[in-house]
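ingest -> validate -> predict -> emit
validate: passed (alphabet ok, no gaps, 343 aa)
predict: started
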Amino acid sequence: MRKIVFIVLSLIPSIVLAGTLKLPVTRDVGICAHKNEVSLNTGGNSRIRVKGNEHYYLFNFDTKQIRGWKITKATLHVKLARGHLRKVAFCTVPYEWSEGTAVNRPQKGSTCFTHLKYPDKPWTPHGGTMLDATFNSPYMMWRASDVKAGRSGWLEIPIAPELIQAVAVGLSHGLVMSDEKGQTRENHDIYTREQAGAKPYLLIEGQPWHIAGGLSRPAVKITPFVPASGFGTGAIRIDTSWPGKKVFGSRVYISETPLLLAYRLEKTVRSFVTLSDPAIVVEGLMPSTNYYVRVDSFIGPQPFVGKAIRVRSSPVLATPKAPKLTKPNSAMPAGGVHKGWVW
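emit:
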């Protein structure tokens, strides 16, 4: 009897603390991919467009109340200004971005389709766009959702809990929403947080996240990766999977010197977030060079901070040897028949 009472009492904190929270959208901006609008910032707009492959909605929300929570359900509430959204998709965002205050014009230091911070910092180290950093990245996570029409023009859009979890633990800087129907002639406009009486918000359901049992150190595998070498560069492959545990996501740091503890990194060369693919191939490194890699794995509300692992990058690809050429014989026969031709 005492054992039963103890079990019931031990569950009370989780039952009491579980519930639903309303979280306001704290930043939002429309991302314009139309060829004439790629540099525009819309952070000051009270309404933005979500249309086909030309217009996206980038937003973030207050996560203070859900830190340490395991998310079980999430719904985005936005008010429709025009059109009829039916199906959308959400994707995680790997980098910090700036909302900006402009109304359909370029603004220095603000986010647009081509730049995290216009006009100096693109979305990816190689000059990629917002799509390259999000939906087109093999390391990001995206999910589609059906839109439910509510009252007075409000829309209720479910979001996969794992996407909200990524934001809650700091692996994603908000989410980006697209019109999943693809090409469409209809304009779909929604109100942003600048519109009084129509500010978007999220309803989140969850409870405190408890991890039962101790955690053993993950068996992270880091090896040279010759297939990704270049004629002047080396590469490594990092497997962030954790045998016996479901890893929610990982953050990877690469440095030329040993990584310091307590998140202090010396001369960080690269950093990655992986939510979808546990394997990361890092190209463009110095060939046959020692690097130090640290993988922080998330299987709960707090990261499991890994140790620095030394790995030697792969050597350069061998330069192909030039074939030995012989001088062609250009002398023409005096005459005769050869393979059906007469000369």
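The two ends are 110 Å apart (CA to CA).
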